[in-house]
Design brief:
Largest interface: B-C, 43 and 45 residues
Structural class of chain B: mainly alpha
Structural class of chain C: mainly alpha
Shape of chain C: globular
Chains: A alpha/beta, B mainly alpha, C mainly alpha
Strand order of the largest sheet of chain B: 1-2
Largest sheet of chain B: 2 strands, antiparallel
Number of helices of chain C: 11
Strand content of chain C: under 5%
Order of helices and strands of chain B: HHHHHHEEHHHHHHHH
Distance between the termini of chain B: 31 Å
Helix content of chain B: over 70%
Number of strands of chain B: 2
Oligomer: heterotrimer
Helix content of chain C: over 70%
Strand order of the largest sheet of chain C: 1-2
Strand content of chain B: under 5%
């Protein structure tokens, strides 16, 4: 086995998510090879690497969008392999997408409301004939949705169509929608892509607040400033394989990482 | 949510007045057909408009509703209402069966599979002669039995007017129930599936299960419309449930306005009455449907509802 | 030859004949799906139009006005039907597919062509009435006989013309620049756009070729059909079944599936009765959709997230 495991075990605290020897290939192309990692509970865990390093594929394996060809995967002690994406959400795993996948024809509010799908507590008949429990749920979801929109700075635009939002705000809306599932683990795929400086600053602050709420975060990201400022652990991939894992400082100092990816930027 | 009860009162008043405005038995018959078409359009709209699945099999569920009711009444001696209930359940169950395909298939494949379902249903009606009488048809079908509670109510459905009140009343209830569903969290779930299944799964939505829900409910509503068809027409032949019926439902939903509740109602009303007004020029019903379907998809994809909104925006914006 | 064997051979020949006709129709659907992932629901109605054009060309124009011999008149009518199909293809592309192409909606073009189909069928109903027309091919009278097995010159013509059409199509795709460009488009729309290939032209061309095949199919199929305005509707359901069984966009699979469905139909008529053909074909289709939705010959792709 690789040195991957040794470094993973250095992680502080119990692991919320644990992967062993994950493999995924598409028509002969190996996108992810022998990846093992342990994400400590309560941490912000960054996954970085050059384009085509397999970061998004890894995230898709963790979320259940893809199933691995080999390897094991456990969340809070429960095996995930073979479990479809929608069931993993019930365990507390939420995600956003690199290529934004909002419900474009729905309003911002409706996008977030759809995120409460697994949390409605209403007797079935009341969906056809609303009564007490329905209206309680209705009000509670709307309140919570507005709070989440407020959290990502979109409270004033609740009735706009999601497709009409500028790019950066769409990313923030995806975070609010994922938060509506009340996750224990939130996975963000390049949340800072296409954001301006002010939006990145907001994102940074919100990531810290999310961590403060006790939610573990995995973030795939290209924006090194953001990663170095916010991440507790950084996991580096290259060509689908493990390259290095450590604290931001160690990553910045590691010659292999610098050679493969960071180049002169941090030298 | 804005209160709906004023609109419900308006709807009840319109339903009450219509048979008096259109007094001849012929026009009252058209009204019954119209109320049935409203239910059919609503049923397809739940699947196509809200869940985003093109189901061309609705004519099959309509047929199942009609045939199961009639055969249970005529050949097995059931009462109309239990038979109708069984027919709705049968149509709903078949809808769930078709949903098994919908779960695996998307877009065009589902459209063709559902078309196949309608063709198979039609062929079964033609070929299973011992049960359906095949192309010879079933004749002398009576209207639903009167509802009698001694000294209180005595409602007979033998006149087109009373039959219209019955079907339109049920259509209104169906509308309200479906309206509640699509405004509820289920509505968000279905529309999430319509917009992006992968994204919906990331929120814990089991698309397979909810598609089955939409197909089952949509099929049951189409079956419900079917229950009243034979007792109104008096005869039952497979030709009435040709796949073209699926296309007319599609035309009603698209022309009225896909994915809105009121759109399919408007579409059903317009497309039921428009060909009647053009009757002088020959049997052009389907020609009108085909033309309307193509033109609306090309030039006004949101249908009459969108046209109305555009018109209103123009006038509101044009004011000084 | 024993009776059973000659019966099987006879039905297989009938089946191949039917299959060739279906291939003409299904190939067009598959070609169009290959380049633009769209279905022309009105495709089989082009067959009906082709059949009517051929009928009137033969009976009115060729033999009456031009005084041509019957066989020559029929051959001319095939050319006219081909032209009519091509024109319809041009029209449906200009009216439906081209305007809707860039909107990225999967279902709208399909729904629009359902409208076109209903329009064409009922337009023809208004023109020609509901009573089926008698379309006698002069070649159908000439029968060949080998032992207990019969077939007509019409059967030979249909098989020959469809084989020639398929061969021409393959040669076009394989050896001409346009054909290669067309294949490039169906394999990878984004990259081929970058290579400076004019996609709108190629898609238009594909639809015209496909529709011309359908029109010609009408002239060939016409004598075997109950030729009324809804004749195409009975063919389209089988054509869809063939295209799905063969794998959407897959030419070889479509040809194979077409012949297969033709043979199944011939044997269904022989052993189960003509009324059950659609039932058998569609049960086969639904089974196929469940077991192997990508068709007889195809690989599965995972969606890129």
């Amino acid at each position: 086995m690789s040195g991957n495991l040794a470094s993973a075990s250095l992680a502080a605290g119990p692991a919320l998510l644990q992967a062993q020897g994950l493999h995924k290939s598409f028509g002969g192309v190996r996108a992810v090879q022998d990846i093992s990692l342990a994400v400590p509970a309560g941490a912000i865990f960054a996954v970085i690497g050059p384009n085509g390093a397999g970061k998004s594929t890894l995230l898709n394996l963790l979320s259940g969008t893809y199933q691995p060809n080999a390897g094991t995967l456990a969340f809070a002690g429960r095996g995930l392999v073979g479990m479809p994406a929608h069931k993993r959400v019930r365990l507390g795993i939420a995600r956003t997408f690199q290529k934004i996948r909002l419900f474009k024809q729905l309003t911002l509010l409706e996008n977030v409301l759809a995120g409460f799908h697994i949390h409605h507590d209403v007797p079935a008949w009341q969906y056809f004939l609303p009564a007490g429990a329905f209206w309680r749920d209705f009000r509670r979801c709307r309140e919570e949705a507005r709070a989440l929109l407020d959290f990502v700075g979109l409270a004033d635009e609740a009735q706009k169509r999601a497709g009409a939002l500028p790019y950066g705000r769409q990313r923030m809306l995806e975070i609010a929608r994922a938060m509506a599932t009340r996750p224990k683990l939130l996975m963000l795929d390049e949340p800072a892509a296409g954001l301006n400086a002010a939006e990145v600053a907001l994102l940074l602050d919100r990531l810290q607040q999310i961590r403060a709420r006790g939610i573990t975060v995995i973030v795939v990201e290209h924006n090194m400033d953001l990663v170095m400022n916010v991440a507790d652990r950084v996991f580096v991939m290259d060509h689908g394989e493990y390259l290095f894992e450590g604290a931001p400082r160690e990553v910045q100092a590691n010659p292999r990482v610098i050679a493969a990816y960071l180049g002169g930027e941090f030298a | 949510m804005a209160p709906r009860w004023p609109w419900i009162l308006v709807a009840v008043a319109v339903i009450a007045l219509l048979p008096h405005l259109l007094g001849t038995p012929y026009w009252r018959g058209i009204l019954v057909i119209c109320a049935m078409n409203v239910m059919l359009a609503l049923s397809l709209n739940l699947i196509l408009g809200y869940t985003g699945q093109l189901n061309l099999g609705q004519s099959g569920f309509f047929a199942v509703g009609a045939y199961v009711t009639t055969v249970l009444v005529k050949s097995f001696g059931w009462g109309f209402w239990p038979a109708a209930l069984a027919a709705v359940a049968a149509a709903g169950t078949l809808g769930l069966l078709l949903a098994l395909f919908a779960v695996r298939l998307r877009g065009h494949y589902l459209a063709i599979a559902s078309l196949g379902f309608a063709v198979i249903t039609y062929q079964v009606l033609v070929n299973w002669e011992s049960m359906t009488e095949g192309v010879r048809g079933i004749y002398a079908i009576r209207p639903p039995p009167p509802i009698r509670i001694d000294g209180l109510v005595d409602i007979s459905f033998s006149s087109p007017m009373m039959l219209f009140y019955l079907v339109a009343g049920i259509a209104l209830l169906v509308y309200l129930a479906l309206d509640n569903v699509v405004r509820s969290p289920i509505g968000e779930t279905l529309r999430a599936i319509r917009e992006d299944e992968v994204s919906a799964a990331s929120l814990g939505i089991d698309a397979a299960r909810w598609k089955a829900f939409a197909f089952g409910l949509g099929a049951a509503v189409a079956g419900l419309a079917g229950c009243f068809y034979p007792s109104f027409v008096g005869t039952l032949v497979p030709g009435a449930f040709n796949i073209v019926e699926s296309f007319t439902m599609l035309a009603m939903v698209i022309v009225g306005g896909l994915g809105t509740m009121i759109g399919p109602v408007i579409g059903a009303v317009v497309l039921t009455f428009l060909p009647e007004l053009l009757r002088g020029v020959g049997e052009l019903r389907l020609l009108v449907y085909g033309l309307a379907l193509t033109l609306v998809v090309l030039f006004m994809p949101g249908g009459l509802v969108q046209a109305w909104q555009l018109l209103r925006a123009r006038f509101a914006g044009g004011r000084p | 030859m024993p009776d059973l064997l000659s019966l099987v051979v006879q039905q297989t020949i009938n089946g191949v004949y039917l299959g060739c006709l279906y291939v003409m129709v299904a190939l067009g659907l598959t070609l169009i799906y290959g380049v633009m992932n769209q279905i022309n629901f009105a495709h089989a109605d082009f067959v009906t139009v082709g059949a009517f054009v051929a009928l009137f060309t033969m009976t009115r124009l060729a033999t009456k006005m031009l005084g041509m011999p019957e066989v020559a008149g029929y051959l001319l009518s095939i050319v006219f039907a081909l032209g009519a199909g091509a024109l319809l293809g041009l029209a449906v592309n200009a009216a439906v597919f081209a305007p809707l192409r860039d909107r990225g909606d999967e279902l709208r073009p399909l729904i629009a062509t359902i409208g076109v189909s209903v329009l064409l069928e009922n337009g023809q109903l208004a023109l020609f009435g509901p009573i089926p027309y008698q379309f006698d091919s002069p070649l159908a009278k000439e029968t060949l006989r080998f032992g207990k097995i019969f077939f007509s010159l019409q059967n030979v013509l249909v098989v020959a013309v469809s084989a020639a059409a398929v061969a021409a199509l393959y040669a076009f795709l394989k050896f001409t620049f346009l054909g290669k460009a067309l294949r490039a488009v169906s394999q990878d729309r984004e990259t081929s756009g970058l290579m400076g290939i004019n996609q709108s032209f190629l898609i238009g061309l594909t639809i015209v070729i496909a529709s011309a095949l359908a029109g010609m199919g009408g002239a060939l199929l016409g004598p075997g059909l109950v030729l009324d305005p809804f004749a195409g509707a009975t063919v389209i359901v089988k054509a869809f079944a063939i295209v799905i069984i063969g794998g959407f966009g897959n030419l070889a699979g479509t040809i194979l599936a077409g012949i297969l469905v033709g043979i199944i139909e011939a044997f269904t008529i022989q052993y189960l009765g003509a009324g059950l053909i659609d039932l058998v074909v569609f049960v086969l289709l639904l089974t196929m959709l469940v077991v192997k939705p990508t068709g007889l010959i195809a690989e599965r792709r995972e969606e890129n997230v």
